[in-house]
């Protein structure tokens, strides 16, 4: 089959809700149930592209599923050319705006389209994009939320040993800054000096708090300080980036490549980590990657490790892949991780196949 000749036929979007093994406990929210929208993109030629979305809030799926169905109706019968579908879908949003759930829907469709194209070509997505199949450096982001220092330290050892990781991310933003400091010290004592430690405030600080608290951790040898303040305060981020020695990491809330470009123009960060459902899927990532590459800014990933591993193989300034296994219960063959490396499987497309028993057990009633 010629992969260039696929035709968009339709899609199925299914909402599922999974119980998190380690609940998210951040300063701004506590999350115990994790929503996913599973997307099957059908082509006239019989190839099925797959992707999923993780919209954080279960109720958001009530709006995402209809949005995906609307986009499918718009694109029915068109040639499956992901860049063109991406442009057509985005242009259909001119009057409602590009940010928010509309862009998330476009991103999910885009990832599934790329999966279908690579499947039809009989090669992993990273190969279709011009790269090779090889491991990608990852840090474990499966836990280390706002718990007592001793509990976080014990969990850090578990997370390190889950896949021989050399990098871990812990969350900060406790009521007292001293408790954050104690947690960092406890984790460092448990996992050793060679472990790369990233910290994430999850947008939980005001600017005045961030100016004080980030300076308190600036000499601890951290890999980065992530989202200390609300994501759209780029001027505040720029002030922190200028004041601190530790790199400032932002980007999971960039809605499209132009947001990344704006952040770099404002010198709002030292590092970027776009999220696939907001940056615009694979097509949006490739556009953003070119901007980061031209600026020499290290680029990490946020969620979606299966897509992330593929595109990191063709990202000029590839830095760290964020490893989270939250979607594993609905996958037939989760990606393998060893010695802190996520191994891209030598399978066509993204290598995503649904575990239908897991799907059926967790289908959501919207």
Please give the share of residues in helix: 25-40%
CATH architecture name of the largest domain: Alpha-Beta Barrel
- β-strand percent reads 15-25%
CATH topology of the largest domain: TIM Barrel
Distance between the termini: 38 Å
Q: Describe the largest sheet.
A: 5 strands, parallel
User: Taking strands numbered 1, 2, ... along the chain, how are they ordered across the largest sheet?
Assistant: 5-6-7-8-9
What is the arithmetic mean of pLDDT? 96
CATH superfamily membership of the largest domain, which one?
Enolase-like C-terminal domain
Question: How do the strands and helices of this protein lay out in sequence?
Answer:
Elements: E1 8-25, E2 30-43, E3 48-53, H1 61-75, H2 82-91, H3 101-121, H4 125-128, E4 135-140, H5 149-163, E5 167-171, H6 177-191, E6 196-200, H7 207-216, E7 224-226, H8 234-243, E8 248-250, H9 257-265, E9 271-272, H10 276-279, H11 281-295, H12 305-312, E10 321-323, E11 336-338, E12 341-343, H13 356-362
Parallel strand pairs: 4-10, 5-6, 6-7, 7-8, 8-9
Antiparallel strand pairs: 1-2, 2-3, 4-12, 11-12
């Amino acid at each position: 089959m010629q992969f260039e000749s696929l035709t968009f036929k339709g899609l199925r979007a299914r909402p599922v809700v999974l119980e998190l093994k380690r609940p998210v406990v951040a300063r701004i929210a506590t999350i115990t149930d994790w929503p996913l929208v599973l997307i099957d993109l059908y082509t006239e030629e019989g190839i099925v592209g797959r992707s999923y979305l993780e919209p954080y809030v279960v109720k958001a799926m009530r709006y995402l599923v209809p949005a995906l169905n609307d986009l499918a109706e718009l694109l029915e019968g068109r040639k499956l050319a992901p860049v063109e579908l991406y442009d057509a879908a985005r242009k259909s949003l001119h009057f409602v705006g590009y940010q928010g759930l509309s862009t998330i829907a476009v991103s999910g469709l885009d990832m599934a389209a790329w999966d279908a194209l690579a499947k039809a070509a009989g090669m992993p997505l990273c190969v279709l994009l011009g790269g090779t199949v090889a491991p990608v450096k990852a840090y474990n982001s499966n836990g280390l939320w706002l718990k007592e220092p001793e509990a976080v330290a014990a969990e850090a050892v578990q997370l390190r040993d889950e896949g021989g990781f050399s990098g871990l991310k812990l969350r900060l933003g406790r009521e007292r800054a001293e408790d954050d400091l104690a947690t960092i010290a406890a984790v460092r004592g448990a996992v050793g000096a060679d472990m790369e430690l990233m910290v994430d405030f999850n947008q939980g600080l005001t600017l005045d708090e961030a100016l004080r608290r980030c300076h308190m951790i600036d000499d601890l040898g951290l890999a980065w300080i992530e989202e200390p303040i609300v994501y759209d305060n780029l001027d505040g981020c720029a002030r922190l980036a200028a004041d601190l020695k530790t790199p400032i990491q932002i980007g999971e809330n960039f809605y499209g490549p132009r947001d990344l470009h704006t952040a770099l123009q404002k010198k709002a960060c030292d590092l970027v980590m776009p999220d696939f459902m907001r940056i615009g899927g694979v097509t949006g990532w490739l556009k953003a990657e070119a901007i980061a590459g031209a600026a020499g800014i290290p680029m990490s990933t946020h969620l979606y490790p299966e897509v992330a591993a593929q595109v990191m193989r063709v990202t000029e300034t590839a830095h760290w892949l964020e490893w989270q296994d939250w979607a594993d219960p609905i996958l037939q063959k989760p990606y393998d991780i060893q010695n802190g490396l996520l191994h891209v499987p030598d399978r066509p497309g993204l290598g995503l196949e649904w575990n239908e028993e897991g799907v059926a057990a967790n289908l959501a009633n919207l």
